């Protein structure tokens, strides 16, 4: 019997696993793919992520996880009226396969057991524990007093437990050799409605120019992508050579007020699975913070005696209250700068101790 089984070795799962293992809990971290695994991502670590890494992992992000240019100096976005806004901020440019693998190894160093190439198929709550059905080389079962489900936007474990309708944004990005008249140290986002149904973006990693668009209707993907490439050629002199790689992925479609699903019974939800995601898809900091908050909530209760599950949820909600307010402020900010996100305007801010969701 494990104390806690954590499903998904992304930033959320790794920060939860490391924190619990450091405190002496018997932790199993399950990952569907062989680590290091790719994850479609722009790989920008904003300052908040860098600070959280230092706080939770006790060191700086190692250089080998980074790509050139290693520093990100902020975001330049063009709003739906074509006006450019520049936000300077210290940040890093990392590859997610290397970064997430480093996080997972830190959890292992702290004492967590990592089982990669193992998919969680489903969770079944029993009276005093949870049965987790797993598929590794064979089908088998593990037991834990509590489970943290953080299998990300493509994960299916939560969908088998709760039936909340969820809509998604489809992302598509391509990697090219070439050149462009833009400063490679920035991440560029474009909110003009003719270029995407959500946002379009450009950034540079090692030798690659990366162009991406996101849509609500996948049938419109090719159309927007082609419009965006034409725009980048015309406005920024993009000279694009052969396409070396393309990635299609999903993002949770965040709704007004940023509703969060905290879990069901002994199965807590965290990270993107719970609905934590900041505008322009900045989700690493939210994952790190929320995974840690879930771990801290578990540490606040006594796992060896009769488990008071409502106490875990109260602590978890309280621990993530500042994060939720941050997330709403961020979406509010974007709502104010582009009509595309105008519906995200949120005025019901509350102080730190809300228990309403
Ligand atoms: C195109 C794109 C660009 C982005 N760019 C940025 C960026 O620059 N900066 C930023 O901060 N955020 C970015 N994000 C968002 C960020 O990637 C996510 O918010 C973040 O990874 C969420 O972390 P997580 O741990 O909750 O989930 P994930 O990182 O998705 O981790 C979930 C893990 O669970 C595993 N898994 C899935 N199913 C199972 C299963 N059944 N059993 C076991 N394991 C399973 C997955 O393989 C994965 O390893 C971007 C997202 C996209 C789509």
Write up this protein.
This protein is an alpha/beta fold and 357 residues long. It has two domains: 2-73 and 94-166 and 254-344, FAD/NAD(P)-binding domain (3-Layer(bba) Sandwich); 168-252, D-Amino Acid Oxidase, Chain A, domain 2 (2-Layer Sandwich), CATH 3.30.9. Helices cover 29% and strands 32% of the residues. The strands form two sheets. Strands 1, 2, 6, 7, 8, 9, 15 and 16 form an eight-stranded mixed β-sheet that branches. Strands 3-5-4-11-12-13-10-14 form an eight-stranded mixed β-sheet. The model is unreliable at 351-357 (pLDDT under 50). It binds flavin-adenine dinucleotide (FAD). Flavin-adenine dinucleotide binds next to α1, β7, β10, β14 and α6.
List the helices and strands and how they pair.
Elements: E1 2-7, H1 11-22, E2 27-30, E3 44-46, H2 47-57, E4 66-78, E5 84-94, H3 96-109, E6 113-115, E7 119-125, E8 130-135, E9 139-149, H4 157-161, E10 168-179, E11 187-190, E12 200-205, E13 208-215, H5 221-236, E14 239-252, E15 263-264, E16 267-269, H6 284-299, H7 309-319, H8 321-337
Parallel strand pairs: 1-2, 1-9, 2-6, 4-11, 9-16
Antiparallel strand pairs: 3-5, 4-5, 7-8, 8-9, 10-13, 10-14, 11-12, 12-13, 15-16
Helix pairs in contact: 1-3, 1-6, 2-6, 6-7
Bound molecules: flavin-adenine dinucleotide.
Flavin-adenine dinucleotide (FAD) is lined by residues 7-13, 30-33, 37, 39-44, 119-120, 150-152, 154-155, 157, 171, 173, 212, 249, 251, 271-272, 277, 281-285, 287.
């Amino acid at each position: 019997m494990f104390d806690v089984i954590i499903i998904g070795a992304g930033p959320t799962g790794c920060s939860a696993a490391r924190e619990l293992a450091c405190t002496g809990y018997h932790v199993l971290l399950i990952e569907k793919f062989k680590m290091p695994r790719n994850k479609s991502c722009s790989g920008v670590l904003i300052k908040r992520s860098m600070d959280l890494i230092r706080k939770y992992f006790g060191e700086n992000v190692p250089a080998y996880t980074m790509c050139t240019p290693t520093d990100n100096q902020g975001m330049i976005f063009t709003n739906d009226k074509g006006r450019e806004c520049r936000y300077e901020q210290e940040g890093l440019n990392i590859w997610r396969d290397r970064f997430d693998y480093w996080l997972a190894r830190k959890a292992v160093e702290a004492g967590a057991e990592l089982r990669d190439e193992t998919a969680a198929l489903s969770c079944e709550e029993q009276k005093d524990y949870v049965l987790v059905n797993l598929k590794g080389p064979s089908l088998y079962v593990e037991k834990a007093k509590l489970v943290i489900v953080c299998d990300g936007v493509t994960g299916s474990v939560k969908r088998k437990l709760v039936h909340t309708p969820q809509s998604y944004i489809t992302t598509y990005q391509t990697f090219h050799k070439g050149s462009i008249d833009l400063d490679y140290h920035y991440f560029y986002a474009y909110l003009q409605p003719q270029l995407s149904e959500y946002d379009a973006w450009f950034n540079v990693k090692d030798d690659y120019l990366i162009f991406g668009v996101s849509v609500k209707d996948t049938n419109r993907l090719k159309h927007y992508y082609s419009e965006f490439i034409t725009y980048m050629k015309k406005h920024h002199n993009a000279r694009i050579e052969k396409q070396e790689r393309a990635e299609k992925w999903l993002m949770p479609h965040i709704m007004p007020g940023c509703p969060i699903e905290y879990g069901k019974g002994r199965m807590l939800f965290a990270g993107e699975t719970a609905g934590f995601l900041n505008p322009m898809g900045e989700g690493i900091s939210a994952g790190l913070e929320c995974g840690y908050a879930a771990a801290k909530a578990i540490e606040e209760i006594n796992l060896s005696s009769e488990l008071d599950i409502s106490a875990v949820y109260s602590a978890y909600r309280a621990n993530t209250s500042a994060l939720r307010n941050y997330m709403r402020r961020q979406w509010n900010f974007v709502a104010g700068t582009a009509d595309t996100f105008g519906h995200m305007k949120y005025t019901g801010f509350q102080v730190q101790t809300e228990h309403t969701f």
